[in-house]
Amino acid sequence: MTRSITLHLTDAEADAFDALTAAVGQLSGRAVDAEATTAAALDLCLTRAIDDFELPDPAVRELVARARHNLRRSWTRGNACL
Predict the structure, then answer these.
(1) Taking the chain, what is the end-to-end CA distance rounded to the nearest angstrom?
(2) Which helix (H) or strand (E) holds 27?
(3) Phi and psi dihedrals of 60, rounded to 5?
(4) What angle do CA 10, 81, 76 make, to 5 degrees?
């Protein structure tokens, strides 16, 4: 299942997204699309939330851990991770 999300980015944010797409592509050794870039960024954000910050609410910590697990479960985006 997929869902569509529309983002409205400033020029600086769009430039940063383009740079991230180039970086993820170089790290994965292939061209990647915006969706793979977003999945890689989400994975990194979820990992940082778990590993680098103390989430005070156990329910939120479990939600983040479960979301990261589910994101990584199939890697339909070709394992484009950071």
Answers:
(1) 24
(2) helix 11-28
(3) -70, -40
(4) 100
Q: Are 40 and 71 in contact (CB under 8 A)?
A: no
Residue 79 has what pLDDT? 58
Q: In which residue are the tokens 């394992």 written?
A: 79
Summarize pLDDT for 29-66 with one digit per residue, the tens.
888 888 888 888 998 999 999 999 989 999 999 999 99
HEC string of 34-70 equals HHHHHHHHHHHHHHHHHHCCCCCCHHHHHHHHHHHHH
The label of the residue with tokens 């960024």 reads 41
